[in-house]
Amino acid sequence: MTKNQHSNQRKLPFPNALWKLTALFSLVFSSGLAQELKTIEGTVTASSDGMPIPGVNVLVKGTSNGTATDFDGNYSIEATLEDILVLYRL
Question: In the list 29, 51, 69, 79, which could disulfide-bond 83, CB 3.0-4.6 Å?
């Protein structure tokens, strides 16, 4: 085989296709992990004196998922890491 014949041979796109497949898999897999529900726990305290505030409503924004803080200001709620928690007290 001469040098010209060798350079005209078609290369297989496998390495490029493998890279694209790996990138696509990584994006799909990571977005699936971001949507996984986690238990978020915390304590609501007053900014003035640091005392716990009981009875504060804790909601996942845009959903009906919610809870309220206990006597010690503690709460626990299921949410994804991308969710926004909204706190309010009537």
Answer: 79
Q: Which pLDDT score, from 0 to 100, does residue 21 have?
A: 59
Task: Tell me if 57 sits within 8 A of 65, measured CB to CB.
Answer: no
Distance CA 53, CA 70 (A): 8
* Residue burial 25-46, b: 16+ Cβ < 10 Å; e: rest: eeeeeeeeeeeeeeebeeebee
Residues 10-22: pLDDT tens digits?
554 445 555 565 6
pLDDT for residue 70:
96
Q: Residue 83 carries which side chain, given as an amino acid letter?
A: D
Q: What are phi and psi of 4, to 5 degrees?
A: -65, -40
Q: Where are the domains of the chain?
A: 37-90
How far, in Å, CA of 71 to CA of 80, rounded? 25
